Amino acid sequence: MGVGFGIQQLFSDIASGIVLIFERNLQINDIVELEDETVGKVIHIGLRTSKLKTRADVILVVPNSKFVNDIIINWSQMDYNTRFSVAVGVAYGSDTKLVTDLLLDCALKNKNISLQPKPFVRFNNFGDSSLDFQLYFWVKEPFLVENTKSELRYAIDDAFRKHNVHIPFPQRDVYIKSQPASPS
């Protein structure tokens, strides 16, 4: 029983490899995201398995049936630019126009962010403890976007400190009720 299932999976992987090779939905150097949110660059497509190099420089050997049967995001087959965002909350009472200007300035100063389309800011919500903003931007190299997001967060923190814009921390009020003393 176990051997039969193993052979069935082997044939499934080989058939999937043939589909990948002929359909060319997956190519060397494509940046893909698997269902478990692992992102990697395709470095080899074989008949039974393919190899991905992750952002952590780890080589994953992935059965080809995963690329045919699962939902995979292929970041390389999208437009030249790919959109991402960074979320930030600021304290109530902050100057929302200043916050928008600072976020845009941080994006425009980052060399990895495309100038077309232009970055933009969305005021998302009045949160529990903060005014919630989202900075949207496009990059040409989605494989390294986590580094770009980190650079943005550092720049935003620095800009906010210089302009006295505060990032709040969640606050909760706790009420303690005491039990009336019982008569002795």
Q: What do you see in this structure?
A:
The protein has 184 residues and is of the alpha+beta class. It folds into 2 domains: 2-76, SH3 type barrels, CATH 2.30.30; 82-162, Alpha-Beta Plaits. It has 4 helices and 8 strands; from the N terminus they run αββββαββαββα.
Which ranges are low-confidence, i.e. pLDDT below 50, for 5 or more consecutive residues? none
How many separate domains?
Answer: 2
Just give the CATH class of the largest domain: Alpha Beta
Q: Look up the CATH topology of the largest domain.
A: Alpha-Beta Plaits
Mean pLDDT: 88
The helicity comes to 25-40%
Q: What share of residues are in beta strands?
A: 25-35%
The best one-word shape is flat
Relevant terms:
184 residues; alpha+beta; SH3 type barrels; Alpha-Beta Plaits; five-stranded antiparallel beta sheet; 33% helix; 26% strand
